[in-house]
Amino acid sequence: MAPLPPALAAATTVPVFGAALAGYACEETRAHGARVWVASGGALAEVACEGRGLALSDGTLASQALAGGTLAVEGMLTALPFGCGVLELVGADPDGVEKLLALTPLLALAVEGVQAREARRGTGRVAETVESLMRRLGGSLDLAVVLGGTAQTAALALGFGRAFVALFSEFDAEGARTGEVFTYGFDTEFAGSIGVGPVTFETLVRRGEAIRFERGRDEGSPLAHGLAELAPEAAVIAPLSARGRPLGLLYVDTRTPGAAASEDDARLVLALAEQASLAIDNARLYAIETRKREAAEAMREAGAALAGSLHLPETLSGALEHAARLFQADAAGVYELQPGGRVLKITSALGLSSEYVLRSRAKVGAGVTGRAAAERAAAYAHDLPREGPPAGSRYTRQLLAAGTYPYRGVLALPLLTRAGVFGVLTLYWAAPLPLDEDDFALARLFAAQASLAIENARLYEEELRREREAAVLLGVGRLLGEDQSDRALAEAARLATLALNAGRGLIALLGPDGEVSRSATYNLHPPSPEDLGHLRAQLGRGPRPLTRRVCLPLAGSALIVPLIGGPGGGEVLGFLYADDPGTEPPSDRVLGLARAVADQMALTLTRERLLSALEREEARYRQLAEGAHDLILSADAGGGVTYANPAARRLLEPLTGPLVGRALLSLPTPATRGALAAAWDAAFTRASGGRAEIQVGDFRLEGRLSAVGAEGGEEERGALLIARDLSELQTLAEEIQRRGQALEAATSRQTELRTYLTLFTQAQEEERRRISRELHDDTAQVLIATSRRVARLARSLEGTGRERAQDILTDLDAAIESVRRFARNLRPSVLDDLGLLPALEWLATQATTPARLEVSGQERRLPPAVELTVFRLVQEALNNVDKHARAQSAAVRITFLPGGVRVAVKDDGQGFSPEQAEARAQAGHLGLLGLRERVALAGGELGVDSAPGQGTTLTFELPA
């Protein structure tokens, strides 16, 4: 924005200002004429005019422009409002109007200043001093010139010798502090800022009054204590304010002994401060506008530069350079969010030391940079070593603790993309943070612009990456699809390794046994079978990073991904391995690319294997067709035979001649051709095809016609006929019937034999019961009676006779016990009297091999026939253990089931193999066969589990 012409800035009255403005406007816009209106008493009044054509104006357009506050145009008239005035032009150039439009804020301030000066205009020192200040400033919009000129004018007007102007920079509950101070007459420069206490601030700012100080009068007051460093004899302090906003203060003093500050001095300084406030505010507005324009230009340049690069490293470097230049930062860095979303690392830096870049890490949520990433909003520290939040990096905390941290002001701006937080742009200043609210707004705007450029660069690089990956996938697929030799496999390993940005690579294919059958490497010495097996053990369901401990030698990090495919889609065909000397683990993008490359390889390998399998299947089906006994003929869409298997040629060609080339529908006899024709039509209309019985010569055939290629074009359609000679089937059916009758007769004989055996077994048991009862009731009783008689006889004898009688008595007792044991073995009474479990316990105690009985399930009595069968089976099993097992112990386990009983007899003996069992059976040892037959007769099944040296377990289950 250009400054106002000196004539406008120096105008002392509204008419003078209007005349100067009308002449300036005609010159700048090349207008025919110009008229200046100023509102006074609620109505517009003409204050000046210049040029021709003013008769076109009657003030209406000017009133509309002032009321609307915007530019108004009607024909050749243009009305431009500024504050309480309107500039009306006749035939103005539009470009000139645009230039004046940019000056309207300054014109409004200038006319208000002129009106204020007119209102305060008087005679004497005040008017002269104000006029002198205005002449000195000359309409300048340079803030330093305005502030310095104000201080000099005030000092010279009062004759005090010293003055300064200071603008407020901070406000708090206790007052305010100033920023830079502009002085006149002081021997030394001011260091730091000036504090304004609450009482002084109340008087100056809130009441708008000037403060007079005289040492003799105010000695010992708080004001004297505050001015002790300046040591004035007399001083006047006046507030600077404009548009109801406090700007700062004007201070004038003298060290001349006995000097005093009068009320006129205070009014003079106050009037001077009021006039200076307008100039200061104009300069501030101009500086703000200039700064905005410069910032907009800088932002435009930065945006154009960032948008011109689509490579992420260049974009980041450009963002750092423009940010550092725009905000005058001493250093800058881009922290990029790492995988996992918890740590940020510097990936691009400007002005930062190498050690700082390498060692500095920021945790999300901690420190200035971490907070910006977590909150997705700008974060800052005005003076980090003194007041800032704890640093998010251990290295930064160490520097702060040692007092060697090189920066004080820190500003962190989040870089946000559609994918989320990309990272943080952090700016560093060696001094405290020098930015104000406008700078913060500009910084946020710059961060948004940089984020957009980063998003574009990432999208561009992502598109390039996808193109490269697609090219790699296409190359690998084409390479392995055309050739799967060792050379092609090695080239595929090279392509995959380069695509993954790895240093070395390996492709290994697995054989049917799951071991590595073939491998190819790139930039890698062929690993040993042990190394390949070790890598094979690291496979999972997808790509996974490998630590240095499980990588191949000389690798710092690696990845491995299985090649999963096959006909079922879940077979591991091999694996792809790639490594790198660095220890940085592969990123998610690299792992995703590895998965895509592996899937492409697996797809190609699977397709080739399926094609090979299809060829083998075609050969096998052709072999089956060639060796089939059924007649197989194929025909094209016109019904011509295109193929006939040997069975068809052997059976039909003696009757019909060569089959290939003949019409299929003409082969049957005339009586059966209609049936074949109907089947032909049905083959193309029904999914199940068509069936027909036809006659060819002396052969009666049953055939089935199926459509082939029915979904293709008409020229691709055809049919397949599979026929069978019914005469041969009839012969086969008769043979099956004959054999079925023989089988039925054998089954009947077997049933009769089983019935006979059952009856025989029952009769045997009954006979045993009868003999056991007779031995127990008759023979045993006779022997007992005889024993008692011999015992009485022995008691009546003496000497040798008595001894002989005792021997006879002993023999009788042994015979009685033998008869009893024999009776029990034939049919133990405990089974009939007490039941199965006591009988089995008795059997366990009678066995030579130590045995035990184990019972599970709900105990109950079983039908007598079942209990007898279980008893006999266990008895025979224990006898076999005693005779053949050479066991140390045996166990009888009986389990009561809801529908029956399961019994297992187990020993820890020598066991036997199936061959040994067969040899014993051939040698006449039929114990197992007898047990199996008896279990079968009872409706159960016997299981034998034995092996040499591992004992034997016999298990059978009987229904109850």
Automatic annotation (TrEMBL):
Give the UniProt subcellular location, in the record's own words: Cytoplasm
Q: Name one GO cellular component term.
A: cytoplasm
The record's section on SUPFAM superfamilies has: ATPase domain of HSP90 chaperone/DNA topoisomerase II/histidine kinase, GAF domain-like, PYP-like sensor domain (PAS domain)
Domain Histidine kinase intervals? 872-960
Tell me the ranges covered by the PAS domain, including all copies. Answer: 617-687
Q: Which UniProt keywords apply?
A: 4Fe-4S, ATP-binding, Cytoplasm, Iron, Iron-sulfur, Kinase, Metal-binding, Nucleotide-binding, Phosphoprotein, Transferase, Two-component regulatory system
Task: Tell me the cofactors it needs.
Answer: [4Fe-4S] cluster
Q: Note the Pfam families from the entry.
A: GAF_2 (PF13185), HATPase_c (PF02518), HisKA_3 (PF07730), PAS_8 (PF13188)
Q: What is its EC number?
A: 2.7.13.3
> Mind telling me which InterPro entries this protein's record contains?
GAF, GAF-like_dom_sf, HATPase_C_sf, HATPase_dom, His_kinase_dom, PAS, PAS-like_dom_sf, Sensor_HK_TwoCompSys
Lineage, top-rank taxon, reads: Bacteria
Which CDD domains does the entry link to?
HATPase_UhpB-NarQ-NarX-like
Q: Which reaction does it catalyse?
A: ATP + protein L-histidine = ADP + protein N-phospho-L-histidine
A GO term for molecular function? 4 iron, 4 sulfur cluster binding
Q: Top EC class per UniProt? A: transferase
Query: What PROSITE patterns has UniProt attached to this entry?
Result: HIS_KIN, PAS
What the protein does comes down to:
Member of the two-component regulatory system NreB/NreC involved in the control of dissimilatory nitrate/nitrite reduction in response to oxygen. NreB functions as a direct oxygen sensor histidine kinase which is autophosphorylated, in the absence of oxygen, probably at the conserved histidine residue, and transfers its phosphate group probably to a conserved aspartate residue of NreC. NreB/NreC activates the expression of the nitrate (narGHJI) and nitrite (nir) reductase operons, as well as the putative nitrate transporter gene narT.
**What is the name of this protein?**
Oxygen sensor histidine kinase NreB
